[in-house]
From TrEMBL:
It is found in: Cytoplasm. Pfam families: Anticodon_2, tRNA-synt_1c. GO terms for biological process: glutamyl-tRNA aminoacylation. The gene is gltX. It catalyses: tRNA(Glu) + L-glutamate + ATP = L-glutamyl-tRNA(Glu) + AMP + diphosphate. ATP binds at residue 263. The lineage of its organism: Bacteria, Pseudomonadati, Bacteroidota, Flavobacteriia, Flavobacteriales. It comes from Allotamlana fucoidanivorans. Monomer. GO terms for cellular component: cytosol. Belongs to the class-I aminoacyl-tRNA synthetase family. Glutamate--tRNA ligase type 1 subfamily. InterPro entries: aa-tRNA-synth_I_cd-bd, aa-tRNA-synth_I_codon-bd_sub2, aa-tRNA-synth_I_CS, aa_tRNA-synth_I_cd-bd_sf, Glu-tRNA-ligase_bac/mito, Glu/Gln-tRNA-synth, Glu/Gln-tRNA-synth_Ib_cat-dom, Glu_tRNA_lig_a-bdl. This is Glutamate--tRNA ligase.
Amino acid sequence: MAKNVRVRFAPSPTGPLHIGGVRTALFNYLFAKKHGGDFILRIEDTDQNRYVEGAEQYIINALNWCGMPFDEGVGKEGNFGPYRQSERKHIYKQYADQLITSGNAYYAFDTAEELDYHRKDHEAKGKTFIYNWHNRLKLNNSLSLSAEDVQAKLEAGQDYVIRFKSPQDQTLHLTDIIRGDIKIDSSVLDDKVLFKSDGMPTYHLANIVDDHLMQITHVIRGEEWLPSLALHYQLYQALDWETPEFAHLPLILKPTGKGKLSKRDGDKLGFPVFPLEWTDPKTQETSRGYKEDGYFPEAMVNFLAFLGWNPGTEQEIFSMEELIQAFDLNRVNKSGARFDPDKIKWFNHHYMQQQSNEALAIAFQQERSELAEIDINFIAIVIELIKERATFVSDFWDLSHFFFIAPETYDDKAVKKAFKEGTSDILNEVITQMDPIEDFTVETLQNTIKGWITSNNIGFGKVMMPLRLALVGALQGPDVFDIIFMIGKQESIKRIKNAINTISI
């Protein structure tokens, strides 16, 4: 690509960033980095009625947590700011005026009541009201009024909007990187409002002007913007600007594969749809986040990359650097991508195994008050023994609590399975074998206990099951000799004696 690639992620600060928005940001980020380009964050906050306090910072925090820092944007001013649309209000009117001058747009003075009347009148006749070529000359606008009347209305300060003059009977040829060539009959398009009566641009005008002035080369956005593509193409042509390349990403679907993923789906099925936890400033309702639920950012990024894209190989585990090298918009699918909550857990399990035991030990210690006084190195060794069975740090306690505290109860089913007549005698003999060992290592323990079992021709299960139950309180956990070594000789003997005295058959 000859031009310096510049892409933008342009969310509205109307609440927390949905997982679909994170995926859009990710694909923009990967594309920019693949081509040595710039990833820009633009905050589209022209709709002040829907503005939510804290949402802008949330978006920035979410991108940073995911490992997708933007190159330019709010707080990282480049040469194309400001990066909040609300701070660019003074820019847009001149381009709306330019479109009127060139005949590509017009003033419309229709009141809300007049438009409502036309809609209801059409509904009564079984039709849909569309403001465009077939009726605009009959409506209250600068195309149907004399120049004098228009001037008088403007000078009197009458409310107006500026509408785009959509052409009649033209076939528009549009191109999308993902969807290929698209043909649209211009006659079915309405004359969209570009500039509102409150002096603010609509999304369509502001979006085009900002993309042009910020020298955006590729617009990578969600499928929901596909219906706007025809208008945006026409606006570029009408303003005599070079059109960027467009790519519309497929929808992220519910786990059932039917319909767009929503927060309600997450609430119903028990998984987050936001990267970070969010508390609504008005209702104080808190929504779960992937970070707080114990997911690693690498797992979420790896998972999201596969929602609508595939590398064309069997490889599933990708670092961010590998994703950047492999990413290609031509390998993004047109059809929707099903959100699979179990698959992101699979990714998280993988990334759990890649974490250092020391880092996991710190996270585990911070999560459980019982570990506050425990040596971090001891916790790290425990984690090495159990992390293969864990998906989240929050799983560690169930998998390892017996390393830190003695069992107070014993699982009923396990007792019935492990404790038989003569079991207490066997466990007493285990103590007798264990107590004199001076070189107390896992290997010495194994050799001593297993040697005794073999030489006395005792079934291994008759010894190892009740021994595990005595140490753990259940038939779970890593190798018994690892447990004995970790908790130490005296603690192990104490637990075995307690089981002998407590469990009755």
